[in-house]
Design a protein that fits this description.
This protein is α/β, with parallel strands linked by helices. The protein contains 15 helices and 12 strands.
Length: 359
């Protein structure tokens, strides 16, 4: 009987609840209004001949590198950050190696690392979801070959200090250090291009979030030219499809659209945090396009009541340390106003809500 590798057979399964997502999408950290009109115009201009050709990645990589003010050899276009994680694991992990992650965090770090046969060590964040740099440094040893860190983190929105991340890179020179900056546009701080001083450092970005192109699956993996050349050996030469490659230049060109959307999200994030504080709902500081809040044993009632009113939010109770927690994505200011109005209605209808939240 044909069997998969044991490491694959034992993998946890990631099933994002994508079905029945009608309403205001505040559940998956997507752009809530879509991509730039320039991207839509480019989509409409595509022809059958454009789709008949194999995609040519390198010219668009050069454009993306110029935008990021790095060398083309320091960048690989990827099929979303998910592929970047997978490629790093395939390039650097052997069975028996160790990969370190801080939990709660994005599930694909563990899945991609464990699929190689590596041992995944999960280091809990602090009680306030702060980055446990001391605990992580204490776990580094000669077996450590990958450290994956989302910054800002998902689902908490917390961040790690740049000096702490660089110290990890210094202390683990034989490990690939991935800093996943998928939410960079809502935070504004980056380690790029500090891989020039730390050749084991990689930075991932995506065009799924602020750019509104999640359906096209395109991102960037950045690092030293020497290491990116090694990762490129593992990647398919056609890993990013021709539609995504055609749409990336107008998306990059319309920075005003991205800045405006990100600005509205940041303002809305502050308004949501203030509302939750005034309502007695525990929540955590976020530098991403979402806020994680605790609704205790009322979280199922809360999620259902929000859905009934046409707003989708994400139950994160299964994440380590997140029992009773719900993640709420931010969109435009108009959408945030609707969110706050709905939250007020829902919280008002849940009896003894402040007491339930504090339990």
């Amino acid at each position: 009987m044909l069997r998969p590798r044991e490491s694959v057979h034992n993998l946890p399964t990631y099933h994002p609840p994508l079905g029945g997502r009608e309403g205001l999408r505040l559940d998956f950290n997507e752009n809530t209004v879509g991509c730039s009109p320039r991207v839509l115009a480019r989509l409409r201009s595509l022809t059958g001949e454009d789709l008949a050709r194999y995609p040519e990645r390198e010219p668009v990589e050069a454009l993306a590198a110029r935008h990021l003010k790095i060398q083309r050899e320091e960048l690989l276009l990827i099929n979303g950050v998910d592929e970047g994680i997978h490629l790093l694991c395939e390039t650097y992990l052997e069975p028996g190696d160790e990969a370190l992650i801080v939990v709660p965090t994005f599930a694909m770090y563990e899945i991609s690392a464990a699929a190689t046969g590596a041992r995944v060590l999960a280091i809990p964040a602090t009680t306030n979801f702060e980055f446990p740099v001391g605990d992580l440094l204490a776990k580094l040893d000669s077996r450590t070959r990958l450290v994956a860190i989302a910054n800002p983190n998902n689902p908490t929105g917390s961040v790690a200090e740049s000096n702490d991340l660089l110290e990890i890179a210094r202390r683990a020179p034989n490990a690939a250090i991935l800093v996943d900056e998928a939410y960079f546009e809502f935070y504004g701080r980056s380690l790029a291009p500090q891989w020039r001083e730390h050749p084991n450092l990689f930075i991932a970005r995506t065009f799924s979030k602020a750019y509104g192109m999640a359906g096209l699956r395109v991102g960037t993996l950045m690092g030293t030219a020497e290491q990116i050349a090694m990762v490129r050996r593992v990647a398919s030469p056609y890993n990013v499809n021709s539609v995504a490659l055609a749409c990336l230049p107008p998306a990059i060109d319309d920075q005003e659209y991205v800045r405006d959307y990100a600005s509205q999200v940041r303002l809305g994030r502050g308004r949501l945090a203030r509302f939750l504080t005034e309502s007695g709902v525990r929540h955590w500081p976020s530098q991403a396009n979402f806020v994680l809040a605790s609704f205790g044993h009322r979280k199922k009632v809360f999620v259902s009541a929000m859905r009934t009113r046409g707003i989708l939010v994400r139950d994160r109770s299964r994440d380590p340390g997140c029992e009773g927690c719900v993640r709420i994505t931010l969109g435009t200011l108009d959408q945030t106003a609707r969110l706050l109005d709905t939250l007020e209605q829902v919280l008002g209808e849940i009896c003894s809500f402040p007491t339930a939240v504090s339990e």
